[in-house]
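Hi V.,

You were right to ask for the full record rather than a summary. Here it is.
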Amino acid sequence: MNVQFQIHLTDKKRILGRLFMVYATMSLLGCKTLNNSKLNKSIDQQISSQTTNNYFQGLLVYDPVKKDTLYNHNSQKYFTPASNTKIITLYSSLKTLPEKIPALKYIVRNDTLYMEGTGDPTLLHPYFGDSTAVKFAQNYNNVSLYLNNFKESRYGPGWAWEDYDLYFSPERSGIPLYGNIVTISNDGNIAVTPEHFKNQVVPINYTVNRELYSNTFYFDPQKKDTLESPFMIDSTLTKTLLEEVLIKKVNIVQKMPNEEKQVLYSVSSDSLYKRMMAVSDNFLAEQLLILSSSTLSDTLNSAKARKHILENYLQELEQPPRWVDGSGLSRYNLFTPGTMVYVLNKMYQEIPRERLFNFFPVGGNIETLKNRFNEDGRPFMYAKTGSLGNNFCLSGYLITRSGKTLIFSFMNNHFTKTNAEVKEQMQTIFEMIRDNY
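Predicted structure:
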């Protein structure tokens, strides 16, 4: 009898212990659900505050491990993404380009090098300074250049025409040289790169950096800052610039020989991706899409690359974008936060984390994110900004205090307040998410 009683008592203890564990687990789950509910309510209050009721916001926050949406507001609506478009350009490049950038397509016949551009932006570029193609061409007595494979307008649709003389709006081309930019500096003497334009720089203080329809540049001799201004491109100028650096004659030909083309490679592709994202380089973004098209056919056309990506890698998008350029300079671009998160998640699943995060600007470490999105020098965000007049967007990856990685896209369009005020509200929301999830 005593033995039976002890057995029953032991069973009761086990049952009570299990019930306690179940209750404790349910309590923890309940607390977590309550916390998430409170977090959503807090974000809702920020989103619907009096300071935000006269412009458009969209926010999607996604947990890629749980495959669950943490927060959603207008994620299916279309916004002007500005330079958030570069996230899609990055994804396109990762899908189409090899480990090294294709610098040239070429054919050698006897002692003549026939070559055509691929859109590689690094040749003699002020930052990359690559001379792979130049050194290669110098090995041949005769150099013939084919330029008719470039089937693209010099500017993207919807670009602001008045930006023609500003550093962030260079022309697109099939064989860029020097980043399609004239660099003018003053360290006692005015220095011009490429030197070809030295006699076309007028040393006066003027309202524009360059004439609209000619390569006449203006530079204030009292100015100590470096000036970068795009130059106008045509076949004659491209030929002349190449001849000056090769120190030999270059022939323009109307067609390439009917033979299989070889490919010459230049710099690491990852170095372009990182530079494009870090400083939001519009020129690199545009040329990357042209480079992508060079891997699909002999025709250089960014529309071909965009069509290929949408049809082969993003065909499952619930809100297909209006995607017209690689940089986001155009206000014709339309993307939803949902689309941005979808692409960011695809990269997160397909690319090693260390490599992927290395492409993205780090919170607090670049001008557009300076003094924001880090804590005591520890960044909690890897994200790309997108800014046009009255628009500011931010999309990327957020690391919470608990160590979770979240994917987000936060888009703000058509506000009349300052960017700083919009960023302040975004900072508050992101800190809520960081601290409470």
